[in-house]
Amino acid sequence: MALRTNPTERQRRLGAELRRLREQAGLTLHEAGALIDMGRVHLTHIEGGRTAIPSDRLRRLCEGYGCTSAPYIKALVGMADSNGKGWWSAYRKSFPQSALDLAELESGATAMESYETLLIPGLLQTDAYMRALFRSTRPDATQDEIDNLVRFRRARQDVLGAGSSTTFHTVIHEAALRMEVGGSQVMRGQLTRLIRASILPTVTVQVLPFDVGVRGWYSTPFLLLRTGVPGLETVVADHPSARLRLADAESVAHYGATFKELSEGALPPVVADESPMLHEKRDSWGLIQHILYTH
Asked: Which Gene Ontology terms cover its molecular function (predicted)?
């Protein structure tokens, strides 16, 4: 079978998990391959996500590595059985791999925790906000290219659509609510969308106000994606020079603790069954409404 030249996110993650398990077990590629009658080179390609592994061999390999977590092994088998294709595959020729990876990660998440500093989270943006943002950041883009970017982001938002059980908890810095993207009319529409989204039972919106003060964790937006299986979380962190994708336990724990601290420092979230008239400026909904009506 020909090797994959462009493995999907799931295929690369499966390979990385198998490599991690092998290294934890203290086995060489040759020793690990012997467990399932496989050559060293073949196993190298599996760990690189470049070729598939049958589920029966995968289970034997996990057993040989001393992995006993049934939910974790089941999740790995699911990753092995998946071809990695989804709605995002239609955009493969026009979008970078990092964008496709993000869409694939979101589609497999059961819970997401997001922190944004200057922009509204992409999963909660209106079309008008997207268009204004893309025109600003991509001044040379054609109208067709802008339309394609909007379609892709709107398709990503389906992960929070009707019938979805995926939860999305976001902490948004007040600066993002006041940042002018597309003018007053666009921002009013965006803030209204944010209020409506925050009422959904699967969406939690909190605002981190200016008067909280300055701390080191303010500077880097990030998204923590959870799959419901411990050990298979992923962090996507935006840095000035690159978008980092982190899956090691230390990074996941660090960003998980950071998000907890951010959430505790932010204004209380919206309570869906509470009347809007009860909200004051000192909760998230109240502050969003205050900015909306004074914009």
From this structure: DNA binding
